[in-house]
Design a protein that fits this description.
CATH architecture: 2-Layer Sandwich
Helix content: 25-40%
Strand order of the largest sheet: 1-2-3-4-5
Number of strands: 5
CATH class: Alpha Beta
Largest sheet: 5 strands, mixed
Number of domains: 1
CATH superfamily: STAS domain
Distance between the termini: 42 Å
Strand content: 15-25%
Radius of gyration: 14 Å
């Protein structure tokens, strides 16, 4: 029986980079951080990143390592413009995540917003 990957990465047809997390442990956070650094370094042709982060899997709990890596990413590449939409399960307690996004990350040119509807998240990402 094969082990489930911690996350799936996919470039969608509309230029959105999608990360669908099955778990957000320390190893996953490090792997994702490295991947995001490469994404920011490469920048899309129009210079705007559009990232969809799906945290709706039932086992997802934001780890300390994931928060640390998110903080580090928010301070890197301050000139990279774009948006990051984060999909959450509205039935789970995501108040801590909302507070972390609001107060725990450095302001930069990449807007961040929580969604519980994937179509709405994609539409918002494409507005930039």
């Amino acid at each position: 029986m094969s082990q489930q990957k911690p996350y799936e990465k996919e470039w969608l047809d509309n230029g959105i980079l999608s990360y669908r997390f099955n778990s957000i442990g320390s190893e996953t956070a490090q792997e994702w951080y490295t991947d995001m650094m490469l994404t920011y370094e490469a920048q899309p042709p129009d210079g705007k990143v559009r990232i969809l982060i799906d945290l709706r899997a039932p086992a997802n709990m934001l780890s300390a390592e994931a928060m640390m890596r998110a903080r580090q990413l928010s301070s890197k590449f301050p000139d990279v413009v774009g948006r990051i939409a984060i999909l959450i399960d509205p039935n789970e307690n995501f108040k801590n995540l909302a507070m972390f996004l609001d107060r725990g990350l450095q302001d930069n040119l990449r807007a961040r917003k929580l969604f519980d509807d994937e179509a709405a998240a994609k539409a918002w990402l494409l507005e930039v």
